[in-house]
Amino acid sequence: MRPNTLRSKIAAGEPVLNAWCAMASSHAAEAIAHQGVDSVTIDLQHGAIDFAAAFQMLQGISTSPAVPLARVPWNEPAIMTKLLDAGAYGIICPMIETEAEARAFVAACRYPPMGSRSYGPNRVSFYAGTDYAGQANREILLLAQVETRRAVENVNAILSVPGLDGVYIGPGDLSLSFGVAPSMDPTDAAVVQAMADVRERARSSGLIAAVHTDGAATARRRFAEGFQFCSLPTDVRLLIDAVKAAVREAKPGV
Amino acid sequence: MRPNTLRSKIAAGEPVLNAWCAMASSHAAEAIAHQGVDSVTIDLQHGAIDFAAAFQMLQGISTSPAVPLARVPWNEPAIMTKLLDAGAYGIICPMIETEAEARAFVAACRYPPMGSRSYGPNRVSFYAGTDYAGQANREILLLAQVETRRAVENVNAILSVPGLDGVYIGPGDLSLSFGVAPSMDPTDAAVVQAMADVRERARSSGLIAAVHTDGAATARRRFAEGFQFCSLPTDVRLLIDAVKAAVREAKPGV
Amino acid sequence: MRPNTLRSKIAAGEPVLNAWCAMASSHAAEAIAHQGVDSVTIDLQHGAIDFAAAFQMLQGISTSPAVPLARVPWNEPAIMTKLLDAGAYGIICPMIETEAEARAFVAACRYPPMGSRSYGPNRVSFYAGTDYAGQANREILLLAQVETRRAVENVNAILSVPGLDGVYIGPGDLSLSFGVAPSMDPTDAAVVQAMADVRERARSSGLIAAVHTDGAATARRRFAEGFQFCSLPTDVRLLIDAVKAAVREAKPGV
Amino acid sequence: MRPNTLRSKIAAGEPVLNAWCAMASSHAAEAIAHQGVDSVTIDLQHGAIDFAAAFQMLQGISTSPAVPLARVPWNEPAIMTKLLDAGAYGIICPMIETEAEARAFVAACRYPPMGSRSYGPNRVSFYAGTDYAGQANREILLLAQVETRRAVENVNAILSVPGLDGVYIGPGDLSLSFGVAPSMDPTDAAVVQAMADVRERARSSGLIAAVHTDGAATARRRFAEGFQFCSLPTDVRLLIDAVKAAVREAKPGV
Amino acid sequence: MRPNTLRSKIAAGEPVLNAWCAMASSHAAEAIAHQGVDSVTIDLQHGAIDFAAAFQMLQGISTSPAVPLARVPWNEPAIMTKLLDAGAYGIICPMIETEAEARAFVAACRYPPMGSRSYGPNRVSFYAGTDYAGQANREILLLAQVETRRAVENVNAILSVPGLDGVYIGPGDLSLSFGVAPSMDPTDAAVVQAMADVRERARSSGLIAAVHTDGAATARRRFAEGFQFCSLPTDVRLLIDAVKAAVREAKPGV
Amino acid sequence: MRPNTLRSKIAAGEPVLNAWCAMASSHAAEAIAHQGVDSVTIDLQHGAIDFAAAFQMLQGISTSPAVPLARVPWNEPAIMTKLLDAGAYGIICPMIETEAEARAFVAACRYPPMGSRSYGPNRVSFYAGTDYAGQANREILLLAQVETRRAVENVNAILSVPGLDGVYIGPGDLSLSFGVAPSMDPTDAAVVQAMADVRERARSSGLIAAVHTDGAATARRRFAEGFQFCSLPTDVRLLIDAVKAAVREAKPGV
Fold first, then answer.
1. D176: nearest CA in chain B?
2. Quick one: which of A240, E180, F143, F244 is 20 to 30 A from E102 by CA?
3. CATH of region B5-143+213-250, choose from 3.40.50.720, 3.20.20.60, 3.40.50.300, 3.90.76.10
């Protein structure tokens, strides 16, 4: 089976920079995947992407060395099965607040006896190799999103679930949950503290501390803080910012 | 009929900044259209876009004040008809080298007696209004691409064709045609001179001088030179540049 | 944030006429939206429409003054999140039978602290404005479908849920639930009585009484009865009826 | 090979009522095809439809007894080949003005030795049967659009081309060509006379006289005049008219 | 209502051979449906297929005599409703392990009073006829997948659920559940015994015993064992095997 | 630039086995590409494939070592440009009958000064590398289809066109052109002789002799005859044959 390079990079202490796709475009996904990022996440929750688009995006990403990941819309096995069968090498699951939810997430993504994932690899066998079924449990990366106050309180229990590889902090929802305006780089002291706590709990458990960011500068800072996996803003956001900047520069007086 | 604001802007001496879509994504097109550009061109020649995607992109752009334009893949009436019926408010036609080609282009896009466009407005009547047919010849913008040495030699004849609104320089193909490497900001003296000549001929004919650029800085310079309409790089290029820059910034040591 | 005009219309006592899309066609949705209806609902339950089509339909509807709504296939947060992020200004949720179900529905569609909607507005910010997140809870319209005997029995409890804007009667399922053949204009006394009861409970609670109809004549009658929001038959039904009528008229002897 | 029932109906003197699809929706096409029309035409010229959508629409229409036809965007062999291979049982070609153009049209659609259609039946063999290649020249219906003054002048020459089955009058373009506003039911004397002349020439040549209409009433009148094949307005138009009428009826005071 | 021919075939003791579609291709589905299989199942669980593709595939299959079935991704009513409304004549539901799960499955697919399926037939009325609603409960085929050790233990309870038509064994997951490597033709004694037990329980209950296979030879053997319904490998698998065999034969030395 | 491995294989005397895609499925294309074929051709002429599908198929094929090729629907530059920009590494052009047609074909696919291909590589730069523009003329493979009697007569002139890499015989159309029934393995003496002549002319000109076949056995024979490049039957045909065979084997008595 093709190895999941994110695992070896993290084991080697290399920072993992993850791109984030919110547009249903395999063209954009392939373009992004070839620019030096370590992985590309297809966002089926807040991204305007469903399975059919994700399938094509997985094909586009698979032409590059970047590892294809997916964020699912909800902690439901149906879509996880489909994305894994289609070639996702990791799943980010939103709104995991309890150990039970984390267990359900892991069970849906691991073959028996580790979990209850149904057998039927499809496109993934072209990407991973025909020995996929026997080794998938070892390579697929599972990250639970910790993004509410309740999840922070339960983070130890969440991190204790066998088969989970790490936690992924969503600073926007976490901010809302703490009663402050959503931000991808929170400054509220309680939120900042919660993020640090979760990061340290994950690291001390030997698991991955991952986080969403509002751009490369924040990502760089997060890596320095000890996060091992940082996501860039969405492709839509990068595009909007680029066009806005171009308008300002090309027509300064307007 | 909804007026084509590009006409009034150019009449008023305002620079027109045009965004350029090469991805088949109505999401990207709509996002771009809302960032302050004057128009958005859907590129069906070098863009990975065909009619079905263009139709959806026209819907996305139509939610914004930006004017929807299309670059056709070739000087053929079938695709021009379809794009105009679907709501394009202007057509950029590649590789116009002779007066006859310019006449054919205009004929395909103007209703009789000015041309021979077939009658059958479709989606465009939602965008333009139900009085479209009677006024379309006055509002639709037609730009002929001048992008070969031969076209430069024939530029006066091309500019003389009634119903044509201007010329659009493609610096890449023009460079190739002059035997130098393709560039969106050519430095070869002969190419630079040809671009200046075409610009001046268009302006002195009372027509529009338009040009493709490699970014906002060049566009700003082109406006200063007298070009009235400048295109930004493609959405794919903006995305690639943004991701590349983010990788460099977030992982400087890698 | 762009205001939800349905709220002001209902506050002013104006009848809201809602079109109903069951075909996965952004062309049809845009065409319908421009004909004077107050809103257009994209039906993801019985309509042959999934998220990808709904996204494009939202773009098409957004070119018009009609308010874009969606009926979700089931009371599940994943699809509600995606549709709201994509620009739906209201959600109709089928088969709400209990207060708990109504609470879950509202929670999925309202940001904290009112609910638990996850933060990540996407396309909606082009339509609504960049101040969407802070004001969405105030503008988004939530209608719970009351369409079973059990729901009718629980209607007071359902109407008591904070954040719910009204109830939407589905006469077809309601008829089945009462043991009679499905009809969009029921004549069974018990069903008729149930519909009247639900309508009056909603009105006396200060909430919206909405209903599906089998056509304009019934809608007109429903408005007179006190319903504030009436849906027309699906686009497919309108098309079928139009073609059938044309066949009868054009070929009378056949 | 499955017989083309339009041929036998016309031979028997039965009027052929043809529906017209301008939306890229296989759902709409299938719905329409089941309402009693004799054929359904997929319009790739003014309809917002390209080959991929037409393929699916052909599948939808093939579930009904209605005969699937296509109007091509232009007199070009590439798209005709693809549509015939995909299961179109007839082609309507726009803007045929000369005998040479009619010959080119026929050549593209008939196998050698009658024409030069390239061999490669694809989906059509499921619909027509595996003996398609040997019998297609006999069953496929070819109608040349006569819709300009020049075409009217050349109608005898056009009708003389072997392998052509008839002419299809486009009243909108014909009106424009005569210098009057486009109408699907022209009242200009010269246009009316031209339509009658073309109809009679076709009938006296033993070929089919077909015409576009603005609705069932006009179609009925056209049948009485001697036209054998009449098209209804587009699906978009039927839908618009139905919604408009419903708005007027449901909200009379608005 | 068009009868479900699978019912009469099984009643007559005829073996039902079912094709299996894992690619989102209505072209493939239609091609397969015309080759003499009794039914074609669209797999939305492990197949790379979602609702939009399934809709088009249902259109393609409906041009043939083969009965259109769907395997849903999970025991959830939303997708079952949509597929039935779109024309599926039967549903195969994965991972049914208990009587309660079987009851929920049946309830989602049967109209009241037998179940709680929501009323709103859509495309299915073109295929089935306009009397669909009243007769659907009698014709639609429901098969529960028995594919875990727990399901085998509960098979009597599952088979007792009114409205269920049979059980469908998934040998791959069943193998995994018994702790052996997944196989579509298991040789492990315990798995073989479980399959025989389930088959006999179904037969003795008067219900259908169905099973997935790894090819025609195994299917033939299964029919001989008493299975009444056997599925072929996926379209992707058939294609892969055909290309592999061609490479070996055409380039033997390579 | 990524080298075109077909060139080195042919230079080394290795047979090139080419798969043929006629379904608009990137899933099928990717599956096929991973089974050991040397190249995969996307057929936009008789295949039910247009540009949008081809783009996705190119992504799927690009995950494998197989070289992506495309057969265009007609000798027109617009579609060739788009396919090359999207990553096709070779073009097969149908119905080339004269030297002039061959020159036009080559001109459309080669950058100046060799031809007049317009500059604007898009997706291809991810696959080929960013040095594509300067080296594309050397790597892209161009094959002209010789498939009529007239083309056979002109084969020397066609082979003399600089920039053309070889000829591709279409036995079906060639048969029709000689007045015999279409066959992918002709037995008519004149056709057989014509095929041998074309093959020998190509080989003695140092160019590639390519041919379509009806299966691996014929391909093997063709390689032995001296053809260097043989295509397998379409994916649809392979699928049909596999299902037919399975039906015969699984239900022998039926």
1. B112
2. E180
3. 3.20.20.60
